[in-house]
Write a structure and sequence with these properties.
This protein is an alpha+beta fold and 64 residues long. The protein has one domain. Helices cover 23% and strands 31% of the residues. The chain has a four-stranded mixed beta sheet with strand order 2-1-4-3, with helices on one face. It is globular.
Length: 64
């Protein structure tokens, strides 16, 4: 039986460093919500992932 990983986090975009701790995905810090939204959109397009707003000052880009 083969096991494959088909959903994973590609990137994290956060406003506050204390909201994010290490892990396997790169973390980008934005200075404000406008910059954060632009980063999330751009990174989702580049990676062909989907941006999800966690509504706590953090976005994750996920490959589905």
């Amino acid at each position: 039986m083969a096991v494959e990983l088909n959903k994973f986090i590609l990137a994290i975009i956060a406003l506050k460093p204390e909201k994010v701790a290490g892990g396997g995905a790169p973390v980008f810090y934005a200075e404000n919500e406008e910059e954060q939204g632009k980063l999330a959109l751009t990174l989702s397009r580049i990676t062909e992932g989907v941006a999800h707003d966690l509504e706590n000052g953090t976005y994750v880009i996920v490959k589905h």
